[in-house]
Design goal:
alpha+beta
């Protein structure tokens, strides 16, 4: 039997439902972060705004407490960028992601050197907090100008206040097992967790979308795809790509109303797909995603990116990419006033 074809609008509504963007929900912070799979955290305000736009009654101290109480962690993960994930998910993701990264480095550096460096970093961070400068000096003789690699050798988490609202100071890191009291899982367990969390947060999605999100190889993720494969539903998009999804995940109808929503810089909904058109119209891609990798804070109208915004002197200013219907403009202005109050 041929797979059912899902229209772009149906995929949009599925993504909005998974991303808590059709209605705000009441959830503990760690559970909300798990529902979202992983939240980009290069900019300290972004996860706070991302949760504000998705959770009913969210207050900034809720995320700060979750970080301080080690229920949520900030760490380098997918695509070698900073993410917020729940503590228990981090141990699963790390068990997959770090060994996969070390294997990729072996293309131009011998495995023994990589393992020696990884062991040295792990030993340092097991006993005390370390800085990126220390790690870079340690790795410079072997990694040369590719010092970013040292962040992918062994699981390290940022110690608060790194990750908290408006904190832009030097980060201190510590070994994940020291911080969380448990070691990472094995890679196969991590692969199954990642496939399940990704589809729950972003599905239905193609395998290429998952690879784009994680920057892992097919062979890294195959154990997870194999483990969940018999339980997954299969669809096609309008380009005939094969889409995978969890059987019980929500797939609202195309005519489901979607409220306006504000997204922070680097929100994962913009970056989670190889084909981003379900949320980001093609004509706005180069405006939103800059050549230097920066991603603008945006707002959604009828579920898709319709403009950018910025906070300035206590106000949230709107920059629509095209004229907006009057009703949408009023709704955006009301939501902008609430977001401005959240910034104070």
């Amino acid at each position: 039997m041929a797979e059912r074809v899902l229209t772009r609008r149906e995929l949009n509504r599925a993504t909005l439902a998974r991303q808590l963007l059709l209605r705000r929900e009441r959830l503990p912070v760690a559970r909300a972060v798990e529902r979202l799979c992983a939240m980009q955290a290069q900019y300290s305000l972004s996860p706070y705004i991302g949760l504000w736009t998705r959770l009913e009654g969210f207050e900034r101290q809720q995320l700060t407490r979750a970080l301080e109480r080690r229920r949520v962690v900030k760490a380098t993960l997918f695509r070698l960028t900073l993410h917020l994930v729940s503590a228990r998910d981090y141990l699963g993701f790390a068990g997959l992601w770090f060994p996969a990264q070390r294997t990729q480095f072996s293309a131009d550096l011998d495995a023994a050197t990589i393992e020696r460096l990884a062991s040295h970093v792990a030993a340092m961070a097991r006993e005390r907090r370390v800085t990126h400068d220390e790690l870079h000096e340690l790795a410079r003789p072997d990694f040369g100008d590719r010092l970013w690699r040292v962040r992918a050798l062994t699981p390290l988490v940022h110690v608060p206040p790194s990750g908290t609202w408006k904190h832009h100071g030097r980060a201190e890191l510590i070994g994940a097992e020291t911080w969380l009291g448990r070691p990472p899982t094995d890679a196969a367990t991590g692969a199954e967790l990642l496939v399940r969390r990704y589809l729950a947060a972003f599905g239905p999605a193609a395998r290429d979308d998952l690879l784009k999100f994680s920057n892992l190889r097919v062979r890294d993720l195959q154990p997870g795809l194999d483990a969940l494969g018999p339980k997954l539903r299969r669809f096609r998009d309008e380009q005939e790509r094969l889409l995978l999804d969890l059987a019980s995940a929500p797939r609202p109808t195309a005519d489901t109303p979607a409220p306006v929503r504000f997204l922070p810089k680097w929100d994962s909904i913009i970056l989670a797909y190889a084909d981003r058109t379900r949320v980001l119209p093609t004509e706005y891609r180069d405006t939103v995603i800059r050549k230097n990798g920066d991603v603008l804070p945006t707002f959604l109208v009828d579920g898709v990116v319709a403009g950018a915004w910025r906070e300035e002197k206590g106000r949230v200013l709107l920059e629509p990419f095209a004229p907006l219907p009057r009703a949408a403009r009023r709704e955006l202005e009301d939501e902008a006033a609430r977001l401005a109050a959240f910034h104070q």
